[in-house]
Amino acid sequence: MQLLKDHILKDGIVKPGNILKVDSFLNHQMDITLINEIGKEFKRRFSDCPITKILTIEASGIGIACIAAQYFDVPVIFAKKAQSLNLDGEMYCSKVESFTHKKVYDVILSKKFLGPEDHVLLIDDFLANGCALMGLIEIVKESGAVLEGAGIVIEKGFQNGGQCIRDMGVRLESLAIIDSMTDDSLTFR
User: Fold this and answer.
1) Theoretical Cys-Cys bridge with 39: which of 31, 43, 67, 174, CB 3.0 to 4.6 Å?
2) DSSP codes joined into one string, 1-58
């Protein structure tokens, strides 16, 4: 998606440790015009799928998933990274390691929002090592729902997450795949 790549090249900042900072338009401050185009592109790419729910993980994926969901006319559900007093009943639970936070989270989702009748599209902002996506895939499998695919805004193609997900047979659509990153440049696939 050229519009996204242009934003990354113009406003993205490469930090040591293969970190791409896109907080000025994607995951802190959100450029809604761009994210609206991202939502349209996910709908175009998954228009052949009978999506009934979009699933993401808190926090950065929520806004993107919400904008995309309006094009599918389906609800968004998100796995939470912390237990709260508002959560009750039976839960799906999976362990997820965050690449950027270097922390393992128990992600949880109420069983009342996802079941065997659902056809799920996973949406997230980044794919690096694939841990977050693997955790969401585990939740979908446990629920008995059909996993239709995963939509990722930015994939770090030089890390193994995308290949692992594809090797599992999951349909993975990444809007921008970065082949390499150095302190002063990046290249796209």
Assistant:
1) 67
2) -HHHHHHHHHH-EEETTTEEE-TTTTSSS--HHHHHHHHHHHHHHTTTS---EEEEET
Query: Which residue, among 86, 147, 69, 138, has the nearest Cα to 107 in the 3D structure?
Result: 138
Sequence ranges of the binding site: 20, 27, 128-132, 156
pTM exceeds 0.90 for this model: yes
10 Å CB burial of residue 133 (0-12, 13-18, 19+) is buried
Q: Which two tokens stand for residue 14?
A: 């490469």
Over the stretch 177-189, which tens digit does the pLDDT of each residue have? 999 998 778 999 9
Domains and CATH numbers, the chain: 2-188 (3.40.50.2020)
